[in-house]
Design goal:
With 322 residues, this protein is α+β, with helices and mostly antiparallel strands. Helix content is 25%, strand content 29%.
């Protein structure tokens, strides 16, 4: 499937989306998960995201963009220009060429003004398609910015798990209780920084559960598989640098958007890791990996937060390099 078809479809039905009684304050609600107002806002953001993806790319309904996307949309997909009109044109073109395309949404989480969507995008029925993570930032109740990462789904996996299923208990795609969000976010962020940024393999013993389920198709299952895979990676890439860009969490699910740079001067890879936490330990992992291309249809890079915005929810530093 051509790369330009990787990231912008929708495939789950949602109820009619009513606008909230008051537009959420820009970048409001960081780290707050206690009140009904916050729950309603996060639910609204998730429902709007799915409605836009499904309406535009499965039905060719450009009206959803007019209703739910800001005209000055900041786009980080290197194959898509900025702006709502460009998004409408892309959706119409893809729908005409691939009328049976499906964006099979597996998981949706939201924190603060961000929504993360994990999906299997299939342009033609019968294909394996792509694994895709999309991240959307909301402003004033509408989508203002988008990042995404896409990867071909391989025919086989060394761990026996596909790139989308839930193997850990309970086997649900829905995020766990909201009161766990902040704790789980801190656990995953610390684990990621110690393991990936500082390359300390012993972090796996501290933060990973023995029942760890792996969905990266090239890495064996379990804790020992993770140690072997990452140990070999660190040895092969001694100049590797990993920059954590943003962290999005809801309940027991925590996503990290990162820039993986193999050596100085390399464009590197855009990666989204999604972790599931139970009883304070990481028990499951999904990811999507995409090489950063040499050129882009926009000037925003695949990582940077767009102009005139404050930092999105994140624990720790946000890196602004391209």
């Amino acid at each position: 499937m051509p790369a330009e078809h990787s990231s912008l479809l929708g495939a789950v039905g949602v109820p009619a989306v009513a606008a909230p009684s008051a537009a959420p304050a820009e970048h409001s609600g960081y780290g707050t998960h206690s009140g009904y107002g916050d729950f309603a806002r996060l639910s609204y953001q998730k429902a709007v995201t799915v409605r836009v993806l499904k309406g535009l790319f499965e039905r060719g309904d450009t009206g959803v963009v007019d209703r739910y996307v800001r005209p000055e949309l900041i786009q980080h997909n290197p194959l898509a220009p900025d702006g709502a009109e460009a998004l409408k044109n892309l959706g119409s073109d893809l729908h005409q060429r691939f009328p049976d395309a499906k964006y099979d949404i597996k998981r949706v989480i939201s924190e603060g003004d961000l929504v993360l969507v994990h999906s299997n995008v299939v342009m033609t029925p019968g294909e394996r398609g792509k694994a895709v993570f999309d991240i959307f930032r909301f402003q004033g109740g509408k989508i203002a910015e988008q990042w995404n990462v896409a990867q071909d789904v391989p025919e086989t996996s060394v761990n026996g798990n596909d790139m989308f299923s839930t193997e850990s208990w309970p086997r649900t795609e829905q995020p766990g209780p909201a009161w766990l969000t902040e704790y789980n976010k801190k656990v995953v962020t610390k684990a990621f920084d110690e393991l990936m940024v500082h390359k300390d393999l012993s972090a796996i013993d501290r933060y990973y559960g023995p029942e760890y389920d792996q969905h990266n198709p090239t890495v064996p299952d379990g804790v020992e598989g993770a140690k072997a895979g990452l140990g070999g990676l660190f040895e092969a890439l001694p100049q590797l640098e990993v920059f954590r860009k943003r962290v999005i969490a809801q309940g027991d699910l925590v996503a990290i958007h990162q820039h993986f740079v193999e050596a100085p001067g390399a464009r590197g890879q855009a990666i989204v890791d999604l972790f599931r936490v139970r009883n304070g330990k990481i028990v499951e992992h999904w990811d999507v990996i995409q090489a950063v291309p040499e050129t882009s249809a926009n000037d925003n890079t695949m990582f940077r937060t767009g102009p005139k915005t404050s930092p999105s929810p994140i624990t720790g530093p946000v890196w602004h390099n391209a």
